[in-house]
């Protein structure tokens, strides 16, 4: 299967630049993966598709305001740091622009001196290992100084940083939002529970590799980035009970899906688990856990459109995307969503 098979033509004006207000007012394309049948609804209609005994699995990772703009101590030159991965303490792997100004030993100041950093090393792929220092708690300083690392296709400035967080986010660590969850309101989750739908959480810290294009022609030759995940004993027990009682496990987002399928393949069952995953899901993959998927519309030729094609069927997905373009759905992170059951 070729990467080009997953291309579709998307007019630029359909790329959502701002989130829907309210959250659950976004449109929802409902796809029956068995028949290929499509219907057009809104996200607040999601309850009509959930049954008593189902469970929703959500990724509770919280996005860090990971873009920092600093000044070089020696020259005053402006440099951007994008936090990619916490190594230990206040040492981070970062993407730095322009990199030539951030050589080992270089020091930078952020804000009015609230935070400083020193470049310790350069990785093989050009990222910087950076040691940060600040007054008080690092994350509190980051909240004051940092900006949300919005995807490159979003050009509008985000007025409220919480709109790039899910209402249930709590575990800091992502460089990008698990965007399928952006459609949920607390009220909608409460109503789902009242209907008898159980809510469970996993954590997968989304890396910027989620936006990395597939650069090989042969899909099977693509190497996925690695992301850290965690599944609790409570969530594992909920999934097993749901399956045992004949309910459906509905994954909210591709990150939750990748976590669930990783645990099933690594452990041979669903149980409490923690680790790193570079699982790559494309057509031919055998799903062991999920029965339904809530997800946004994904970039052409991306690993994420390959994942949804694996779950719903290649022809079904390419037809659904063609339909979504014709019906003027909003695409990508702040866009509308699909429910695949």
Please explain how this structure is put together.
The chain is of the alpha/beta class and 341 residues long. It has two domains: 3-63 and 160-340, QueA-like; 67-145, Beta Barrel (Thrombin, subunit H). It contains six helices and 17 strands. The strands form three sheets. It has a nine-stranded mixed beta sheet with strand order 2-1-17-16-14-3-12-13-15. A six-stranded antiparallel barrel has the order 5-6-7-10-9-8. It has a two-stranded parallel ribbon with strand order 4-11. The relative contact order is 0.21.
Helix content: 10-25%
Distance between the termini: 24 Å
Q: What is the N-to-C order of secondary-structure elements (H for helix, E for strand)?
A: EEEEEEEEEEHEHEEHEHEEHHE
Biggest sheet: strand arrangement: 2-1-17-16-14-3-12-13-15
CATH class membership of the largest domain: Alpha Beta
Note the overall shape.
Answer: globular
Q: What number is the mean pLDDT?
A: 96
Uncertain segments are: none
Provide the domain count.
2
DSSP helical segment count: 6
Q: How many beta strands in the DSSP annotation?
A: 17
Radius of gyration: 21 Å
Structural class: alpha/beta
Keywords:
341 residues; alpha/beta; QueA-like; Thrombin, subunit H; 2 domains; six-stranded antiparallel beta barrel; 6 helices; 28% strand
């Amino acid at each position: 299967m070729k990467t080009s098979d997953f291309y579709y033509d998307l007019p630029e004006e359909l790329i959502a630049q701002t989130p829907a207000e309210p959250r659950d007012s976004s449109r929802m394309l409902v796809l029956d993966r068995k028949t290929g049948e499509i219907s057009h609804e809104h996200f607040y209609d999601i309850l009509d598709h959930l049954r008593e005994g189902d469970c929703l699995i959500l990724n509770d990772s919280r996005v860090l305001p990971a873009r920092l703009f600093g000044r070089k101590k020696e020259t005053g030159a402006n440099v951007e740091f994008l936090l990619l991965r916490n190594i230990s303490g206040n040492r981070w792997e970062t993407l730095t622009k322009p990199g030539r100004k951030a050589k080992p030993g270089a020091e930078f100041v952020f804000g009015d001196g609230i935070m400083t950093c020193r470049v310790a090393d350069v990785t093989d792929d050009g990222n910087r290992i950076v040691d940060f220092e600040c007054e008080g708690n690092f994350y509190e300083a980051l909240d004051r100084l940092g900006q949300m690392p919005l995807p490159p296709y979003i050009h509008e400035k985000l007025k409220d940083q919480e709109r790039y967080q899910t209402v249930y986010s709590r575990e800091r660590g992502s460089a990008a939002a698990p965007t399928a969850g952006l459609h949920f309101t607390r009220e909608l989750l409460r109503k789902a529970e009242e209907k008898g739908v159980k809510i469970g959480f996993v954590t997968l810290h989304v890396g910027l590799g989620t936006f990395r294009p597939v650069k090989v022609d042969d899909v099977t030759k693509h190497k996925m980035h690695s992301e850290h995940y965690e599944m609790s004993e409570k969530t594992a027990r909920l999934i097993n009970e749901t399956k045992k009682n004949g309910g459906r496990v509905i994954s909210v987002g591709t990150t939750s899906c990748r976590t669930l399928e990783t645990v099933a393949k690594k452990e041979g069952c669903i149980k409490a688990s923690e680790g790193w995953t570079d699982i790559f899901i494309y057509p031919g993959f055998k799903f062991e856990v999920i029965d339904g998927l809530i997800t946004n519309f994904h970039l052409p030729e991306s690993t994420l459109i390959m994942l949804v094609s694996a779950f719903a069927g290649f022809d079904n997905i390419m037809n659904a995307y063609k339909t979504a373009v014709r019906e003027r759905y909003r695409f990508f992170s702040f866009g509308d969503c699909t429910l695949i059951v």
